[in-house]
Structures are given as C-alpha cells and as structure tokens.
Amino acid sequence: MAATDGDTRLVDELHEKLRSGPATNPRIAGQGRLSLAGVRFETLSKSYPGRGGEDPIEVIRDLSLSIEDGEFLVLVGPSGCGKSTLLRLMAGLETPSAGEILVGQQAVTKLRPAKRNVAMVFQSYALYPHLSVRDNLGFGLRRSHRRSAMEQLHDQLHRSTRELPGLLQVRSERETKVEHRVLEVARALELDQLLDRRPKELSGGQKQRVALGRAMARQPDVFLMDEPLSNLDAKLRGSTRTRIVDLQRRLGTTTLYVTHDQVEAMTMGHRIAVLNQGRLQQLGTPMELYRWPSNLFVAQFIGSPPMNVLPIQVGRSQTLLLGERRLSVEGPLAAALEGLEGSQLNGGIRPEDLKVAPATNRNLQADVSHSEVLGNEQLITCRLLDGEHLVQVRADPGLRAVPGSRIHLDADPRGWRLFDEQGDAIPTPIPPSERDDTPVLPDLN
Predict the structure, then answer these.
(1) Which of 226, 264, 271 is nearest to 243 (CA)?
(2) Which phi and psi angles does 264 have, rounded to 5°?
C-alpha cells in the first residue's frame, strides 16, 4: 500500500532537516568509508511533559550503550519501552532531556540531522507516491546539499532531456553522479527493472526494497531501521531478512534495528539490547541472552516460547526442590548453589530442556493441556502435578500427546537458571566453553 499522509509528513520532516549537508558527498564519488562510525549513548534520558500538571513521562532512563563500528545491533523490548524513541533521538528528530550521543569520536547531540549522516528506514516504507522508484531512490541524494535556483533548473533540465538525442540533452555532473548511484543501488536490490514504476505498482516486498535502497544510496555512517519488515507476510519477511543481513555485511555500515520479532532478533544481529521501561536490561550476543539471561524479564522475553519459571528451594548436595521432587543441577550453576541451601528462588528452564521420558521416581509427572504440532516439532503445554504449574515442552512431532493424558518429564540438570526474589540472575562463573563465540564483525578494510 502507498504511504499515508502521516508517513509522508514524517519522512518529509527528516529529509527537510537533512538537506543542508555538504555540497558533495565523497562516498558517492567512491572514496569509501570516511571514518569509524561506532555509536555511543552516554547516560541518555528522554522525558515528555505530563498533561495537566502531571509528572513528566520518562521514556528513556539513564541509558548507556556502545555500538561498535560496523556492528548490527538489534533493539528489542515490549511496546512503549523506548526503542523507536532511541532511533528518533539518534536521527535528530527528538532532543534528549539529558546525556550525550556520539558517532565515532564526535558528539552529535546538538547537531542537526544533516550533520549526523544517518539514514532511517521506516516501518511503513514512507515512499513518495507521486515519485517513480528512480526518484524515490535518488531523493535523499538530491536533498543532501543546497542548490541555487539556477542549479535546480539545470538539474531539472538534465532529467527532462535525458531521453532526447545527444545534441539536445542538458548535462549536469551532479545529476549524473546521482543517477549512477541510483542504478548501482537498484541493481544490488534487483530493482533495476522497476525504476520507472510508482509505489502503487509495487508489491510489499518491492516497496520495502525501495525504502532500503533510498537509505543505502546516501551511504550513511549509521542505518536506523524501525521494524522495517512488520508489514510483510512470513515468506517475504524471511527473504528480505536475509537480504538485509547480506547487505549490511557487504556495506559494513553500523546498524540499529528495532523489532518485535523473535526470529529477526535471534538471527540478524551481532548483539541484542533488551529494553524495558526505558532501561537497558541486558546486552549480549543472541545465544548469551538465550542461555544466560540477566533477569527474569529477559528470560521470559527472549525465546519463543519463553523460559518456564518455577518456584523452587535450594536443597542439599547441589539439588533443587520442586514441591516434594528433588532435581539435580550440573554445570556452572552447581557451584553457585554453595551457601544457598534453604533459599527460595525462581528456577528457569527452557522448553527444550524438559524431555518427555519414561516414568521413573525422579521424573516430573504432568497432565497434557494442549498440543501444537508445527511440522518439525511439537509444543506441549502441560500442568505439573507438583504445584499445579503450567510448563511448555518441545517434543518430537510424532509423539502422541492427547489433552488429558499423562506424561513424564526429565529436566536437564545443566538447563536450570536461577533468579532471586527481585528477579535478578544468581551470579554464575560461566567458563568460555559455555559462552557463545564472540561475534565476528565485517571486515571493513
């Protein structure tokens, strides 16, 4: 669908602020990356005035976060946690209440967006419906520097006469560079056969590629992407997700990507930053967050389905007590149980760490409440007889799990994660072998 009036005004606002940039962008001329463009947020806060004398509404609270040059960072969190606000602060569409934003070594907090050299891809594409794909791709390039009225007329004559015989054409070096860059981006995104179409003549996936291409064409230091795939169907999301990751690796552009989609978060980013109520909850690689969440919020937000959480008591000899059932603990967490005997904690365990097993005295009995067969796996929701707690289990799709039937579950001794009464993870010395490998950033040399 075409961009709405609100979307057009939003992108107009950004481009209006961006048009006062330098006369020539050296990166268009093929000079490559100009400088390191890591991003740092230092004790950043953003609040909005309350209505009718109420207290200000805090959206971002003392957030400090560093993104390496060339890194793909995914921002996740519930609605209203400050993800999109953080992107708007980075783009210059909002002004922080406190704190600093740095790109490389330069503080950009008080700079106009034109001086920040960032490009934003919007959730609803925000394409100009009256412009062709060609002109949508080149829009940011044409607005990236001031032109006199005579220069604008010269450029317009170039575009108007480019289909005429050579002697009748008006040549513009500026427009030639823009057209070369537009064609380069269009070929990279397989849009070169669609350059003369209008947005209403494009599919959803094609519109999204145009929006990505418009950002790419300017060769910014930082990409900002606000849920760019949310309007696509599942198949298109998968293919476009792969395309974005591939492009980011080839371009090596620092990228901040906002999403609600668990698959996007786990598969696209070098690291994930989890936000809640404007505060950073955890920052790490996808598998670090999945295996070793820093608190209960992260444990139940990362992963689909989320981690099962059960009230447990620490028993003797590195065991956990769930009701009358004693469960063993192995691995790095076992050492953390020393001195905690008798403590009441929350025990977390992933659905894949609960295995359907034969009936034994040490296994947990549960009654099946619901089953979802997904082709490659089966998700079973069942109620434990010890404590009547609902848990979810990943099982073989061929397993017959009829609602009301009884199954027995074997908890992996290495799968437990423990959280205190405040919801914070019990500190655990994690050996390197248990950690996810350090992400390899793209080679930018």
Answers:
(1) 264
(2) -60, -45
